[in-house]
TrEMBL record:
Protein's cellular compartments: Nucleus
Segments forming domain DNA mismatch repair protein S5: 204-315
Annotated organism of origin: Triticum turgidum subsp. durum
Segment forming the signal sequence: none
Family the entry assigns: Belongs to the DNA mismatch repair MutL/HexB family.
Name of the protein this chain belongs to: DNA mismatch repair protein S5 domain-containing protein
Interval of the full protein contained in this chain: 21 to 350 of 692
Source organism, top-level taxon: Eukaryota
Length: 330
């Protein structure tokens, strides 16, 4: 059974950057206003995510890393959010099958926190009282220690750190009131440090630089055909002056970071057809639509697919909705 669990876990957590993404999302879901990420050896040796969110209650710790825990946790009341983006409730569980997970957490009003380590979905020890500041720190060590081939591939391939930085950067543009930072273990300087701001453009400037911001146009679309059916999109997209070799696509649907290759390709195509200089676009788009129109692939290995007409017709009830995928960091 443990081999089966490990294989399944290795599909949910495909690489260090996918673990980082899941951990940062959890921190943001916990209402954190500061999230700090530290990474060693591209995340294979250590991933540490610290937040100042609401913490995890001691009585929830025993089941924290069981699969599909989500709805069992008392701290989680917002089932609507879970439903809207196909929450799986198995990210943390999966990490315990392919790495060593240690959680330190304190909830409001407690005099001390608790620390506990997990292996293969279960606690290795009873939660130990410990000193803790506000929030939660999750440490994942030796990711894929029990998956020799995966570890080798990741060691041979490019270090996952740039992908981690990329995820944090994209989160920072959307969650402008969360101070996100990311650094290599032992480094004084953070490679991303978003700060908090009240303006989207400031957030983009903090993360991607002033020169990007100079060449952006604001886009806003909203379509309100019925009271209960609202399609809304806003964001920024680069203008004709922008020059870049690589597309930056930051897409959030109902506040979840997703990938949508067909939309990315379509935009690249339009850019290459219209613009005099061969530049790739910078796009930040935040789309809000009724959850029933969004179908996030539940199985993480399944490559995304998009019913492209769905995006434009998302305000009609009869279309079958937009399929997007959770970014795997590939
Ligand atoms: P999911 O996020 O899909 O519910 P996870 O395995 O990622 O599943 O996390 C399980 C649960 O653990 C979350 O629903 C949340 O209640 C709790 N949790 C995880 N990380 C944190 C955190 N940083 N702060 C507070 N609670 C957390
Ligand atoms: Mg999660």
């Amino acid at each position: 059974e443990s081999v089966v669990n490990r294989i399944a876990a290795g599909e949910v957590i495909q690489r260090p950057s996918s673990a980082v993404k899941e951990l940062v999302e959890n921190s943001i879901d916990a209402g954190a206003s500061t999230v700090s990420v530290t990474v060693k050896d591209g995340g294979l040796k250590l991933i540490q995510v610290s937040d100042d969110g609401h913490g995890i209650r001691c009585e929830d710790l025993p089941i924290l890393c069981e699969r599909h825990t989500t709805s069992k946790l008392s701290a989680y009341e917002d089932l609507q959010t879970i439903k809207s983006m196909g929450f799986r409730g198995e990210a943390l569980a999966s990490m315990t099958y392919v790495g060593h997970v240690t959680v330190t957490t304190i909830t409001e009003g407690q005099l001390h926190g608790y620390r506990v380590s997990y292996r293969d979905g279960v606690m290795e020890n009873d939660p130990k009282p410990c000193a803790a500041v506000k929030g939660t720190q999750v440490m994942v060590e030796n990711l894929f220690y029990n998956m020799v081939a995966r570890r080798k591939t990741l060691q041979n391939s490019n270090d996952d750190y740039p992908k981690i930085v990329d995820f944090i950067s994209r989160f920072a543009v959307h969650h402008i009131n969360v101070n996100l930072s990311c650094r290599k273990h032992g480094a004084n300087r953070a490679d991303v440090h978003s700060g908090t701001t009240s303006s989207r453009l400031d957030a983009i400037r903090n993360v991607y630089g002033a020169s990007v911001v100079r060449d952006l146009m604001e886009i806003q679309v909203s379509d309100e055909n019925a009271v209960d059916e609202i399609f809304k999109m806003d964001g920024f997209i680069s203008n004709a002056n922008y020059v870049a070799k690589k597309t930056t696509m930051i897409l959030f649907i109902n506040d979840r970071l997703v990938d949508c290759t067909s939309l990315k390709r379509a935009t690249e195509f339009v850019y290459s057809a219209i613009l005099p200089q061969a530049s790739k676009p910078f796009i930040y788009m935040s789309i809000n639509l009724p959850p029933e129109h969004v179908d996030v692939n539940i199985h993480p290995t399944k490559k995304e697919a998009l019913n492209s007409s769905a995006l434009t017709q998302a305000n009609t009830r009869k279309d079958k909705g937009t399929e997007v995928s959770t970014p795997t960091g590939e």
